[in-house]
Write a structure and sequence with these properties.
Elements lengths: L24 E4 L2 H11 L9 H6 L11 H7 L6 H5 L7 E10 L8 E14 L4 E11 L5 E12 L6
Antiparallel strand pairs: 1-3, 2-5, 3-4, 4-5
């Protein structure tokens, strides 16, 4: 059972941060990174590794494999700056979940802009665990929504923060 809480003086993440919009950042999608990602996840569909196959499938270039958009969030100088801004100590973080809603393909040569917002913060286990739900929209250089991503970050609260 979850419970909503108001700000607590020693809390690691304040529910007042719900609605916080982190500054957007943009990333250029590169062929080499797409091929590497496809190889690492074991993707064998040639639209992810062979430009001719991608074009034959009607795409403008190599396609980004499923979940690749998540790696774009990490492609910045300080990939955890949003969590740090929220007051999260990274050594207390666990991965909760993530989901993707695809609207348009992401392809090599695209410039993707990512905008993240804190959708919810709640706690469970009597405040021992705080959950941060972050939604990120990835739009391409034409302003088209390519992917909506949602992730839940679990923060283990220290005894003094409860």
């Amino acid at each position: 059972m979850s419970s909503r809480s108001t700000s607590q003086p020693n809390s690691m993440v304040d529910v007042a941060q719900i609605g916080y919009r982190h500054p957007a950042h943009s990333v250029d999608v590169e062929q080499g990174k797409l091929r590497f990602f496809a190889r690492v996840i074991g993707e064998t569909n040639p639209i992810y590794t062979d430009e001719a196959a991608a074009r034959a499938a009607g795409l403008p270039g190599l396609a980004a494999p499923p979940t690749y958009a998540f790696s774009l969030e990490l492609d910045q100088t300080r990939p955890f700056a949003m969590l740090e801004k929220l007051g999260v100590r990274l050594n207390r973080v666990l991965h909760g979940s993530q989901r993707f809603i695809y609207h348009k393909p992401i392809c090599a040569g695209d410039r993707i802009t990512l905008q993240s917002v804190v959708e919810d913060i709640y706690e469970k286990k009597g405040g021992a665990l705080r959950f941060i739900v972050i939604r990120t929209e990835a739009t391409n250089q034409r302003g088209e929504l390519a992917v909506e991503m949602s992730k839940t970050v679990v923060v283990r609260q220290s005894r003094s923060a409860k």
